[in-house]
């Protein structure tokens, strides 16, 4: 079964450092997303991406965050200068189409755990 | 408001029994709802979805019920198995909202006793 893969599975970084989290969405999917989950809390939407541009972003996705699809397979989330409160599990997801029906559901990766010290 | 590290509601059931997990959603304008299962160390996994023009939908061993009057969603799991042990999240999408901007609920931890 096709899956979304994420690397690294866990990254530890110092506050103020830049971090890049990588994702390989399902190959025929056109919509890409990043979500995050702070330990013990809800899964929160960060950003959606379609046709090489951001479709929507949440308040969390401030100027410190950026996304990029550098080639035909990867989708990355960059945090320019990490803060302690950026520590969370970051989930990449993709979908074939707009989320209107079961045929176009979001498929999530296993997540990248970011720990900021 | 929520506290950091708030404990999840937990439902403990015996293997073979039916489970019912409830969710109160927030936005009467939401038109699409999904149940996700999250096992430890993994991402959310799609279980079943329902659109707001329906009040019931069945899948394999799972049924989702939607009551728009009271903004309530439930997930019923028949003959619960140890492999069903996980955290279950409901998610909603606001009508007219862009694709993928799902609002997740707090989650319920299901624990299945053998």
Structure explained in plain terms:
The complex is a heterodimer of chains A (117) and B (114). Chain A has strands spanning 5-7, 10-13, 19-24, 31-37, 43-50, 53-57, 65-68, 75-79, 88-95, 107-108, 112-116. Chain A has 117 residues and is an all-beta fold. Chain A has one domain (5-97): Immunoglobulin-like, CATH 2.60.40.10. In chain A, the strands form two sheets. In chain A, strands 2, 4, 5, 6, 9, 10 and 11 form a seven-stranded mixed beta sheet that branches. A four-stranded antiparallel beta sheet of chain A has the order 1-3-8-7, with no helix packed on it. In chain A, a hairpin with a 5-residue loop joins β4 (31-37) and β5. In chain B, a hairpin with a 4-residue loop joins β6 (62-67) and β7 (72-77). Chain B has no helices and ten strands. Chain B is mostly beta strands and 114 residues long. Chain B is globular and about 45 Å long. Chain B has strands at residues 10-14, 19-24, 30-38, 45-51, 56-58, 62-67, 72-77, 86-94, 103-104, 108-113. In chain B, the strands form two sheets. In chain B, strands 1, 3, 4, 8, 9 and 10 form a six-stranded mixed beta sheet that branches. Chain B has a single domain (10-113), classed as Immunoglobulins (Immunoglobulin-like), CATH 2.60.40.10. The A-B interface holds A 4, 31, 33, 38-45, 48, 50, 55-56, 58, 91, 93, 95, 97-102, 104-111 and B 2, 4-8, 32, 34, 36, 41-46, 48-49, 51, 89, 91, 93, 98-107.
Helical region count of chain A?
0
How many beta-strand runs of chain B?
10
What is the ordering of alpha helices and beta strands of chain A? EEEEEEEEEEE
Low-pLDDT stretches of chain B are: 1-6
What is the CATH fold-level name of chain A? Immunoglobulin-like
Shape of chain A: globular
Largest sheet of chain A: 7 strands, mixed
What share of residues are in beta strands of chain B? over 45%
What is the straight-line distance between the termini of chain B?
Answer: 36 Å
What is the CA-based Rg of chain A, rounded?
13 Å
End-to-end CA span of chain A: 36 Å
Helix-strand category of chain A:
mainly beta
């Amino acid at each position: 079964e096709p899956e979304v893969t994420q690397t690294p599975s866990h990254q530890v970084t110092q506050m103020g450092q830049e971090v890049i989290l990588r994702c390989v969405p399902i190959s025929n999917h056109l919509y890409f997303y990043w979500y995050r989950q702070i330990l013990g809390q809800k899964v929160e939407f960060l950003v959606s991406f379609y046709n090489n541009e951001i479709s929507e972003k949440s308040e969390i996705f401030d100027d410190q965050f950026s996304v990029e699809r550098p080639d035909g397979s990867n989708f990355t989330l960059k945090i320019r200068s990490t803060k302690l409160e950026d520590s969370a599990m970051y989930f990449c997801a993709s979908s074939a189409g707009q989320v209107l029906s079961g045929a176009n559901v979001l498929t999530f990766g296993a997540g990248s755990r970011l720990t900021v010290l | 408001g929520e506290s950091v590290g708030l404990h999840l509601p937990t439902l403990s059931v015996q293997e073979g029994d039916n489970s019912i997990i409830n969710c109160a959603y927030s936005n009467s304008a939401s038109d699409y709802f999904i149940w996700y299962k999250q096992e430890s160390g993994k991402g959310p996994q799609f279980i079943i979805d329902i659109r707001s023009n329906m009040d019931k939908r069945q899948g394999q061993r799972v049924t989702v019920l939607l009551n728009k009057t009271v903004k309530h969603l439930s997930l019923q799991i028949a003959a619960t198995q140890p492999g069903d042990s996980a955290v279950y999240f409901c998610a909603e999408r606001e009508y007219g909202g862009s694709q993928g901007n799902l609002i997740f609920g707090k989650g319920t931890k299901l624990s299945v006793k053998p």
